[in-house]
Amino acid sequence: MKKIACIVTGLFVALTMAAQTKVTWSMELGLGMSSWMGKGAGDSSPLFNQKVGVGIDVPLSGLVSFQTGLYWASKGASIDVDYVGANTQNVVDMHVNQNYFEMPLLAAFHVGTAANFDMVFTAGPYLAYGVNGKRNIDIDDLTVSSNTFGESKIEGEIVPGLRRFDAGVMAGVALDFKRWTVGLDGEFGCCKLAGNSKTRNLAFFFTAGYKF
Q: What is the tens place of the pLDDT at every residue in 114-133?
């Protein structure tokens, strides 16, 4: 965790010092839905989730900029899974919440309009590290809660936690006003959530940001 914090801090300092034109900072809030995709995620249902953080836009030319930042992003899904315990074997409902520190690394293309705003198209990778989360498993009339990223024991059986590291591809479109931005982002995970699973993260957020 300390290494990630040092990398993020160093990146922000380097970008600020290297930029020859004005760097724009913004506070952003996103509301949307998250789920899982890939093999084994067919029965997953989306959850309402959010993200919040600080964004940085570094102009590279009149039309292109580099966008990054640091965000707190909540993801997860609700899914029916086959559970085999010491005395039971049935399908149970599992509700998983995953909270990440997330850093996008995006190329942004600015297209001017006749109105008082630009259209901005973004695409690129993101890196994320799982900080905490809660996993609820409903077994008959009992709800068992555990740390999403940690091991838990249910009826004597060890249930492994999800992997903390995540990375994927992010793409979006936004309307860029003088002080405000509004847009839609899609995040498509490329890393398996667990060693014995092929499911990956999927999320869409409507975003609003204030530039300062």
A: 788 999 999 999 999 999 99
Is the pLDDT reported for residue 4 higher than 80? no
pLDDT in tens, 67-85: 999 999 999 999 887 666 6
Domain ranges of the chain: 2-211
Model pTM score = 0.84
Domain covering 2-211 assigned CATH 2.40.160 in the classification: yes
Q: Residue 15: which residues within 8 A CB-CB, separation 6 or more?
A: 23, 56, 58, 66, 68
Distance, first Cα to last Cα, the chain:
29
CA dist 32 and 51 (Å) reads: 9
User: What are 35's strand-pairing partners?
Assistant: 202
Phi and psi torsions of 190, nearest 5°: -110, -5
Phi-psi region of 40 (alpha: psi -120 to 50; beta: other; left: phi over 0): left
